[in-house]
Design brief:
Length: 324
C-alpha cells in the first residue's frame, strides 16, 4: 500500500480526499490543515486522522499531496522532498521563479517523483485529440470564470491562464520567441483579466484571454493547422475537428466546397468523449509513476516551464505583485 498524506483540505483538497479514498493500492494516512474549524469538520466527516505537526505527517507517508494555497507550495514541497517523499503539488508549481527553480533542483537531487496538478491534461475533451498529429499554427483560447475570492492570492495568470499555458507548451514543439500582454487588476491587487499573445519560433501564434471577473464561464481552445481546425471545450467536454477529408474520416459528416484550386471535401468529426474524472485520473497516474518508476505525466519541469511563461507575461504586464 502506498501511504499518502494531504496538505490542505479546503475546496479542492476535499475533492482530492474523495478521490484518494477510491484509488486502489493507496492508504490515506491523514491530513494537515491549520484552519481549526475546517480541520475538525474534515476529520469528523472523513474519519481521517488530523496531524497538527506537518513533519509528523510527512514522516508517516510515502507520498504527499499538496493542495494548500500557492504561497505555501514551496515550503511544503521542501519539507517532503528533504525527507525523500514523492510529491503531488497543485498548480502552479510555486509562487516565484526562484522557488520553482529550487524545487526542480531538489527533485533531481532527491530522485523522487513529482507531479504538478495541471489537471486539464486529463480532461476527456483534450484526451480525445492529444494523440492526433497536431501541429497548430494559430491557437485562440478563452478561459473565463465568475469572481471568487479563492485563488486570488495570485494573479489570473497564475490562477487560470497557467492551465492553458501548460496545454499549449505541451502541444507546440517549439520555444517561445516573444510575448506581448495586457492585463488589468479590477477586483484584486493583481491582474484579474488579461490578454496575451505568445509567438513561437516555429511561427505558431497563441492568443490567450483569461478572466476571473466574467458573468459566464467559458473554457474553449480553438486551434488551426495546415489542414484542420480543432475546437476543444474543456468545460462542456466536447471536441470538434473540421478538416480536409481523408481516409480516417469515413463515416464523418462531409460536404464539398468549390475553391480556386477545385473542389475540396471537408469532414466534420466529433470524437467520442470518454466520461472520466480528471482529478482521479491524474492522481492514479501519479501513483502509477511511483509504483512503476515512470516519469510523471506532468513533471516538475513542465510545471516550471509553465510558470516561467506565466512570469514573463506578468513582467510584460508590469505587475509582479505576487502572493501576499
Ligand atoms: N487544478 C485546478 O484546477 C485547481 C483548482 C482550484 C485550486 N487549485 C489549486 O489548489 C490549491 C488550493 O486551492 P483551493 O481552491 O482548495 O483553496 P482553499 O482556500 O479552498 O483551500 C486551501 C486550504 O489549505 C489550507 N492551508 C493554508 N495553509 C496551509 C499550510 N501551510 N499547510 C496545509 N494547508 C494549508 C487552508 O486552511 C485551506 O483549508 C491552490 O494552489 C490552487 O491554485 C487548482
Amino acid at each position: 500500500m502506498l501511504k499518502v498524506g494531504v496538505f490542505g483540505v479546503g475546496h479542492l483538497g476535499k475533492y482530492h480526499l474523495n478521490n484518494w479514498k477510491e484509488i486502489e493500492g493507496v492508504k490515506l494516512v491523514g491530513f494537515y490543515d491549520p484552519n481549526e474549524a475546517n480541520a475538525k469538520e474534515v476529520a469528523a466527516h472523513y474519519g481521517l486522522k488530523r496531524f497538527t505537526d506537518p513533519d509528523k505527517l510527512v514522516e508517516s507517508c510515502d507520498a504527499v499531496d499538496i493542495v494548500a494555497p500557492t504561497n505555501f507550495h514551496f515550503e511544503l514541497c521542501e519539507r517532503a522532498i528533504r525527507k525523500g517523499k514523492h510529491v503531488f503539488v497543485e498548480k502552479p508549481l510555486a509562487n516565484t521563479i526562484e522557488e520553482g527553480k529550487k524545487l526542480v533542483e531538489m527533485v533531481r537531487e532527491a530522485n523522487i517523483k513529482m507531479q504538478v496538478g495541471h489537471v486539464e491534461r486529463f480532461n476527456p475533451a483534450y484526451l480525445a485529440v492529444k494523440d492526433m498529429q497536431l501541429n497548430p499554427m494559430f491557437i485562440e483560447v478563452h478561459r473565463l470564470a465568475q469572481f471568487n475570492p479563492r485563488g486570488t492570492e495570485v494573479s489570473v495568470i497564475l490562477d487560470l491562464m497557467i492551465h492553458d499555458i501548460d496545454i499549449i507548451l505541451s502541444l507546440v514543439p517549439s520555444d517561445v520567441k516573444q510575448i506581448s500582454a495586457s492585463g488589468v487588476a479590477v477586483m484584486t491587487e493583481t491582474p484579474d483579466i488579461a490578454n496575451v499573445r505568445i509567438e513561437f519560433n516555429n511561427g505558431c501564434v497563441a492568443n490567450l484571454t483569461s478572466s476571473r471577473i466574467s458573468m459566464k464561464k467559458m473554457r474553449k481552445m480553438r486551434m488551426f493547422q495546415k489542414d484542420a481546425y480543432l475546437g476543444i471545450d474543456f468545460l462542456d467536454k466536447k471536441t470538434e475537428i473540421i478538416r480536409l477529408a481523408g481516409e480516417a474520416d469515413k463515416g464523418a459528416f462531409q460536404f464539398d466546397l468549390e475553391t480556386p484550386a477545385g473542389k475540396k471535401t471537408i469532414a466534420v468529426a466529433n470524437p467520442q468523449i470518454e466520461d472520466g474524472n480528471a482529478i482521479k485520473m491524474e492522481l492514479e497516474s501519479f501513483v502509477d509513476s511511483i509504483i512503476n518508476n515512470k516519469p510523471t505525466a506532468v513533471t516538475e519541469i513542465d510545471g516550471y516551464l509553465a510558470m516561467e511563461v506565466a512570469h514573463q507575461i506578468l513582467d510584460k504586464i508590469g505587475n509582479t505583485n505576487l502572493a501576499v
